[in-house]
Design brief:
Blueprint (H helix, E strand, L loop, with lengths): L1 E6 L2 E6 L3 E5 L8 E4 L2 E6 L2 E4 L7 E21 L4 E20 L1
Antiparallel strand pairs: 1-2, 1-5, 3-8, 4-7, 5-6, 7-8
Length: about 100
């Protein structure tokens, strides 16, 4: 059984006991959260989508808040002496899917 769910504006294919990284979510570590924007669900070869999923939910637990790898941004204009170097680390939340309710 798996589901495609919208989490923080991105779509993820999730299954029970799976751990994924999503964009930073509000909540403390160990807190339980539910996502109700289920777009598609598969159960034993039968697919459900659209209005058939009006009450479907995906429940998860927040494991930790982490930062991604550093991405360097470098800008330069030739012959002008202009150089600018900047770094960015995106914040993620690691969650564990605890169940899918249809």
């Amino acid at each position: 059984m798996y589901a495609i769910v919208d989490i923080a504006g991105q779509q993820f294919k999730v299954a029970k006991d799976q751990q994924i990284f999503v964009h930073r979510l509000q909540g403390d570590e160990g807190a339980s959260i539910e996502f109700d924007k289920v777009l598609l669900a598969e159960n034993e070869g039968k697919f459900s989508l659209g209005s058939a999923l009006s009450g479907a939910k995906v429940s998860a637990t927040i494991l930790s808040h982490v930062k991604g790898e550093k991405v360097l941004v470098f800008k330069k204009k030739r012959r002008k002496g202009y150089k600018k170097k900047n770094g960015h680390r995106q914040q993620f939340t690691k969650i564990a899917i605890t169940g899918i309710t249809l």
